[in-house]
Design brief:
about 325 residues, alpha/beta, Ubiquitin-like (UB roll), Rossmann fold, 2 domains, 9-stranded mixed beta sheet, 3-stranded mixed beta sheet, 12 strands, elongated
Length: about 325
Amino acid sequence: MFKRRTTHSRQRSRMRKLEVRVMSPRIAWFGFLRLCGRSAKFFLILALAVAAGWGGWLGIKRAFLENPEFQLRMIALNPNPALDEADLVKAASIDLHANLFDLDVKAIRQRLASRPEIAAVTVERRLPSTLDVHVTARVPRAWIGSVGAETGSLRKEGGLLVDAAGTVFPCPALQWQEARDLPIILLPRDADAQGPVAGEVVKTPQLQRCFRLLDSALAADADASRWIDYVQQLNTWSVQLVTRNGTTATFGLDNHSRQMADFAAALDHASRQGYAIATINLIPQRNIPITLRSEPAPPRATPVPEPTKEEIRSDRRSNDLKSLLNRN
């Protein structure tokens, strides 16, 4: 027991001495000086870094941002039907007096890409003083509107066009000449009585069915877009095509090649015989029903030659139409 007491006493004595040493003012002062030294080194390094950065910024500013060699002097825009240089400057909010490095090419690209008539765009700086802009305009497939609209008011600058992907966009002034002869697709209004809207994508099956009918017409006649006024889906089993001469043709949802061939034969026969077709239903394969207009048939853009005897014998559909007209 005595030995243990002596050991504990010594340990307590050593701890008191250690505590005195740690709490010594001299040691605390030296610790404070070491801390100040470390802080001074840190702030010195920080000041040197700031000074180097500021000096580098001044050098860059003088070498690039304030250098007249890099003043914007040219905008290189590829030829396109979506916009010209003046439209580009206005649409992208480009400062023509800015330094080339002051222009935010990312913001310029985003502003242009947000325009519905532009499918893709790239914007790059070309030293020393040129801004390169490459625009890919949307390719229109048809004009687009709502059922019941006056078709004569749709084909105009600013009117709505639709491309193959179903994207709706306003007709730019530069694209009017290219698009003016395109046919119109009329779609039913949605539940909110809202028609097609620029910038939106039309995903209704009616649009694709109208596209298929127009494709068949163009496959049969490369100039079909010049004589087709508009196309619309009438119901769940038929699509209606109206020509610019006023003929209304009813097609099914498929087998358009055969129906388009019958339609061409009927128009050719009417042109040769001098009568005008008011309506024709091309869904039946034989005995195609038609109605006539009282006025004579308008002249066709391309003269139709008289058929040979062999063509008459081989063209059974033309004979069917002739028999039908005799009955009427």
